[in-house]
């Protein structure tokens, strides 16, 4: 008789537990907010946007890493595509002949390098790129300028024991286009660059600077000042060109 009562009690407990579980599930379903089809679609779009943003961010990191490796590689190779060996004698005629001989190739190298390294997607939008490291469009060009340092000069020899040697290689390309040829509200800077709607001249320039270690004692402060002077040389060249062209600074 005791066994029968115990068995009946266990069955009642199991039945009550099952009923409690069902009631709990119903309460949870009632407390869960229902969303419309539009809200579900919006939630899905937000998830997709988050995933795409993560992918884009990862790709940007990869591009930044590749740029860092490229700059490091250029630094290791001590690479200057604008530099060529220039040796000048003492006689004026000889010096002039040597410079005239290398002139066509220097201008061609300057033009090809600038058009490759500094392509212009839109001449009406200001663009700037600056790459520094330590080392041991279709318009016809209106002007090409190539500047390079002399490696050996018999008339003005380098004295490494007295002076710090500085090498500079510069390429400048000037192109022109009519600002009226492209009127687009997406380029608000066009009006500021040419308010009268006339000719717009675009300058692209590449500068390679190298400061040799001196063969005599120099204080750290003096070396830092020389390095700053080298870094600001391109700004001085730009100011000189603006003075010649009578262009006000921006």
What's the SSE blueprint?
Blueprint: H1 2-31, H2 37-77, E1 87-88, H3 92-117, E2 141-147, E3 152-153, E4 166-178, H4 189-193, E5 199-211, H5 220-231, H6 233-245
Parallel strand pairs: 1-3
Antiparallel strand pairs: 2-4, 4-5
Features:
disordered N terminus, 250 residues, alpha+beta, 3-stranded antiparallel sheet, 2 domains
Q: Assign an overall shape.
A: elongated
* Strand elements, count: 5
Radius of gyration: 36 Å
Strand content: 5-15%
Number of helices: 6
Strand neighbour order, sheet with most strands = 2-4-5
- Outline the low-pLDDT stretches: 1-6, 132-138, 182-194
Terminal CA distance: 106 Å
Largest sheet: 3 strands, antiparallel
The secondary-structure element order is: HHEHEEEHEHH
**Helix/sheet category:** alpha+beta
Mean pLDDT: 72
What percent of residues adopt helix (DSSP H or I)? 40-55%
Q: Estimate nothing, just give the exact number of structural domains.
A: 2
């Amino acid at each position: 008789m005791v066994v029968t009562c115990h068995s009946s009690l266990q069955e009642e407990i199991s039945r009550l537990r099952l009923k409690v579980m069902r009631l709990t599930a119903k309460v949870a379903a009632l407390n869960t907010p229902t969303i419309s089809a539009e809200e579900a679609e919006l939630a899905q779009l937000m998830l997709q946007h988050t995933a795409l943003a993560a992918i884009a961010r990862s790709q940007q990191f990869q591009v930044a890493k590749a740029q860092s490796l490229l700059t490091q590689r250029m630094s290791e190779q001590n690479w200057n595509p604008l530099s060529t060996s220039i040796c000048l004698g003492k006689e004026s005629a000889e010096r002039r002949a040597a410079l005239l001989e290398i002139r066509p190739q220097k201008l061609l190298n300057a033009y090809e390098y600038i058009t490759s390294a500094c392509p212009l997607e839109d001449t009406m939008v200001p663009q700037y790129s600056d790459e520094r490291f330590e080392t041991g469009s279709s318009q016809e060009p209106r002007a090409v300028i190539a500047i390079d340092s002399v490696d050996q000069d018999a008339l003005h020899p380098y004295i490494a024991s007295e002076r710090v040697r500085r090498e500079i290689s510069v390429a400048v390309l000037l192109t022109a286009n009519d600002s009226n040829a492209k009127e687009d509200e997406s380029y608000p800077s066009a009006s500021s660059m040419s308010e009268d709607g006339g000719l717009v001249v675009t300058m692209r320039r590449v500068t390679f600077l190298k400061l040799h270690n001196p063969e005599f004692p120099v204080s750290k402060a003096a070396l830092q000042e020389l390095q700053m002077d080298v870094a600001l040389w391109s700004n001085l060249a730009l100011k000189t060109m603006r003075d010649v062209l009578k262009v006000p600074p921006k």
